[in-house]
Design goal:
Mean pLDDT: 93
CATH topology: Rossmann fold
Structural class: alpha/beta
Low-confidence stretches: none
CATH class: Alpha Beta
Strand order of the largest sheet: 4-3-2-1-5-6-7
Radius of gyration: 17 Å
CATH architecture: 3-Layer(aba) Sandwich
Largest sheet: 7 strands, mixed
CATH superfamily: HAD superfamily/HAD-like
Order of helices and strands: EHHHHHEHEEHEHEHEH
Bound molecules: magnesium ion
Distance between the termini: 49 Å
Number of strands: 7
Helix content: 25-40%
Length: 231
């Protein structure tokens, strides 16, 4: 087994952002599974959404059912994904304040990297599922597996200790990291999962909303600049 990654030095603030349906404006991972392993996806995805099947078990079965020869098509599929508006402006604001932006995805690293393109370099780290396409079907490598997920988002968060942890997410795989956060920006289904647990969340539709809310929360920047124009 690979050695346990060591946590970095504590910082004042960090932002942890889901990839699928959060950085991207559509669900690329679920769409990929439906396209590349349709029968099993139709069987397992509803079970995972209903919390009857662990994500780690379901996602591993789905990924390992996909022929490795399809892997280049999967990466190309992700490259076509569009990123949600306001990301560059949010990253400008975070960089000006020295706040790391950490991508935490339960999806495939190759898809995250393809979709982010040049923006990838602006993330402090990317946590995602690695696959080995050397065999007849994909093989999953998930060194941060835990909490019933192939990438324990809470374990990934723990590698970036911060006094104030901000989470941005959209669906059930973000629930545990949302519960561990100090501030949660939720959209879509994540709101219902948090409501059922009585956890407060901030609404957001695109990253302009996240940036404006964080600027309001954190106050003026030390450099005195206002940052990106508000719409
Ligand atoms: Mg998501």
């Amino acid at each position: 087994m690979a050695p346990e990654p060591a946590p970095g030095a504590p910082v004042e603030r960090a932002v942890f952002c889901d990839f699928d349906g959060t950085l991207t404006d559509t669900e690329t991972f679920v769409a990929m599974l439906r396209r590349f392993t349709p029968d099993l996806a139709a069987e397992l995805i509803p079970e995972m959404l209903a919390e009857r099947l662990e994500l780690a078990v379901g996602v591993r079965r789905l990924l390992e059912s996909i022929p490795s020869a399809r892997y280049p098509d999967i990466v190309a599929f992700a490259r076509a994904a569009s990123l949600r508006a306001g990301l560059a402006e949010l990253l400008d604001e975070l960089e000006a304040r020295g706040v790391p932006f950490v991508v935490v995805s339960g999806g495939l690293r190759g898809m995250v990297e393809a979709a982010l393109g040049p923006t990838l370099a602006r993330a402090a780290a990317v946590y995602a599922v690695d696959v080995d396409p050397a065999g007849p079907t994909l093989r999953v490598h998930a060194p941060l597996e835990g909490d019933g997920e192939l990438v324990s988002k809470v374990r990934a968060m723990a590698l970036h200790p911060a006094a104030e942890r901000v989470v941005v997410g959209d669906s059930i795989p973000d629930l545990r990291m949302a519960l561990a956060a100090d501030v949660v920006f939720a959209r879509d289904g994540l709101r219902d999962y948090l409501d059922r647990r009585g956890v407060a969340w901030e609404p957001w539709d695109d990253f302009h909303d996240v940036r404006r809310a964080l600027v309001a929360r954190w106050g003026p920047r030390a450099d005195g600049r206002r940052g990106a124009r508000t719409r």
